[in-house]
Structure formats: C-alpha cells, structure tokens
Structure to design on (251 residues):
C-alpha cells in the first residue's frame, strides 16, 4: 500500500507510468523568441550536458559573459510562457546594467560551484526583476559542480515543489535560502538512499508534477477513486495509472 513518505521517492524512480527517465538528456529546440529579441543562442538545440559545458567555459574565462549564459539557461528552461522574459532581458539593456547583472551572476555561479548553496541563493535572489527561484535555480544548478560528492544546487520549480510535497509531505514552497538549502540537502540524501543522481530525482519529480498538474489534490483524488471502487491494496503505480487516465495520458 502506498504511503506519503521518503520511500515514495523510490516508488517514483521505479514507476513505469511516467515518461522515460532518459528524457532528462533530450535536447530542447531554442525558440525563435530569442532571435526575435536580438539574442543569439548557439547551438539551436540545448540539453543539460551542453549547458554544463558552457558554464565550465565561463569559469575558465576571467571576463566571462554570464549574462549570455543566463539567456542560454532560460532558452532551455522556459517552456512556452515568456511573460517574465522581457523584463529579465531588459535588466541587461544598457552597458552599466549588463555589467551589474554579469557581476550578480558571476558571484552566484562561483558560490554554487563551491557548494555554498545558501550563499549562491542569496547572491541572486531578488536581484533581478522577475527572475524567481524557478528560473534562477536552473542557473545555480548548471553552475554547480556536478562531480562533487557533497550536496549541490538542484532545480526547484513549482512542479518539483508540488511533487515533493505530494510524495513526501516535505514543503519547499517558501522562497528562502534556508528552504532551498534544505531541499538540496534532502535531494542529496535521497540520491544516496536510492542510488540515483539528484538531478535524475529532480527530473522524475518534474514528470510527476506534470502528471498531477502541480496539484496534490489530484493525486489524492485518484487514490480515493480506487478505494471507492473497492480496491483494498493500492500501490504507487495503481494511483499513477488512474491519474494518467484522468489526465488523458492513457486511453
């Protein structure tokens, strides 16, 4: 029988209902929105490995263009909703503004790479209009040291937050550096517990967040519907199958 607990992270990793775990490496085609706003993104398709490689190149260059790197991260991570992008881009419209933004990003990037999760969060939080945690945690993730054995920055957006709360009862919705640090530490804990990289767990949570439409009650509704039909033993994939059917994922 499924229960809300840390163990549900293990259920999530082995579920056959969600999309492929391998999708974490799939490339994302860059939207024409960026070129239309005079921003060059190269290559035209981006995946996680490519962004980690660009971040590494930036760290090797004392005069690195971290602003350009942020545009690449957003080009990969913004999924069709560009309502915040114009304001973020405008924060680097002038020379002085771009220098200021580049300095903010540089400090955050180096703190993240050193594993200073809380300092990295504070270095960028509320420094750029409309650049919230869902966006800037992606920047912190790609500038982290992915080979470090210690906890490091991980993406935390609304889908991941809703998934973590639904699965484990742990709430990471508060926009605070301490909350984000706790999330990254917990992801590291689950990584060791279940033998999966923290970013694979994050991606799997993102998929689960899509399944429940970022709403815990939709998961609970699917679970309750099975019990109402007389099922006595309901497991994770039983609920996931029912939710997928209700969401139109299964015919």
């Amino acid at each position: 029988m499924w229960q809300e607990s840390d163990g549900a992270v293990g259920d999530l990793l082995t579920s056959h209902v969600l999309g492929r775990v391998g999708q974490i490496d799939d490339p994302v085609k860059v939207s024409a929105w960026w070129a239309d706003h005079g921003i060059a993104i190269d290559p035209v398709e981006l995946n996680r490995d490519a962004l980690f490689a660009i971040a590494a190149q930036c760290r090797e260059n004392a005069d690195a263009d971290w602003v350009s790197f942020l545009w690449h991260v957003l080009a990969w991570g913004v999924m069709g909703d560009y309502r915040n992008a114009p304001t973020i881009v405008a924060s680097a419209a002038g020379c002085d503004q771009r220098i200021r933004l580049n300095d903010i990003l540089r400090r955050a990037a180096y703190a993240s790479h050193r594993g200073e999760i809380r300092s990295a969060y504070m270095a960028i939080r509320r420094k750029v209009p409309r650049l919230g945690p869902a966006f800037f945690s992606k920047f912190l993730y790609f500038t982290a040291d992915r080979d470090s054995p210690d906890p490091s920055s991980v993406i935390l957006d609304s889908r991941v937050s809703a998934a973590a709360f639904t699965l484990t009862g742990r709430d990471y919705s508060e926009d605070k550096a301490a909350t984000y640090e706790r999330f990254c530490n917990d992801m590291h804990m689950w990584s060791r517990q279940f033998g999966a990289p923290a970013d694979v767990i994050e991606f799997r949570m993102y998929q689960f967040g899509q399944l429940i439409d970022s709403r815990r009650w939709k998961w609970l509704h699917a679970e309750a519907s099975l019990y109402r039909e007389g099922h006595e033993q309901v497991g994770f994939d039983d609920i996931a199958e029912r939710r997928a059917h209700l969401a139109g994922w299964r015919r």
Notes: Residues 95-113 form the longest helix (19 residues). Strands lie at 28-29, 45-46.
